Amino acid sequence: MIFQTSIPYSTDPKPLPGVAPLAADGWIIHDDAFAAQMAKRDQLLTQQNMQVVAYADPNPDALAEVLTMVLAVIHNRSGYQIDQGRAQRPDGIWVDLNGPPLEIAARLIQEDLLLHEKRSGEWTLTAGVLCFPASWSLHEKIGKGLTRIHEPVPQYDQNINKRVARLFDGVQPGRPLWRRNVLTYADPDLFHPRTEAAPRAGDHDGKFLRSEHQAVVRLPKSAAVLFAIHTYVIDTTCNAASQK
User: Fold this and answer.
1) Bridge partners, 108 (sequence order)
2) How many independent structural domains does the chain possess?
3) Residue 104: enclosing H or E segment and its boundaries?
4) Is residue 40 one of the residues assigned to a domain?
């Protein structure tokens, strides 16, 4: 089981979409679960690649731009080293920078990476690496627009859909935005895929608190939008005991 010791922001309920400004490099977060989460990501990307990676004819330039932006951020981060076509993570693991750029980027940082591009007037999920799904399936959503992606979410009505579309339209390069969700689970496993036909049920009162820091990032050259998800999981019983 992989846990953070805390979540660094309020987990009080907020109405959708609940966005706020973020520092230019704030969409990449390095926390106390880095080594364990990255080991899990490496395992999933190596052993279950078909389940955690999907493409729907993305713009190759946008994919390359994601990796370029990740490298630009981590270049100045403590614990990283970039040298002659490879990069070393803070956990000491070297990552070859030659290969599928989105998957390489996903081996360097804790965030899941979902690329969206405008297709037929709607923001559409064209590529993704989703190692830590919170009860949804990447392959069920790939190639779909925002409206269809969020169809099973009761709170995601037409008004929210329009606001999210405007958010994607309006986010500026170097000025990312972020929101968060807060869920409770009985099972703390980070890899928690579910299809729409088998929705989550029975674990809403679990002792594990799961929250996603979701960043919306404009790619300046391709004009695509990256949705970067940083997942926190804490054991509320242990945290409560430690505070007594």
Assistant:
1) none
2) 1
3) helix 101-106
4) yes
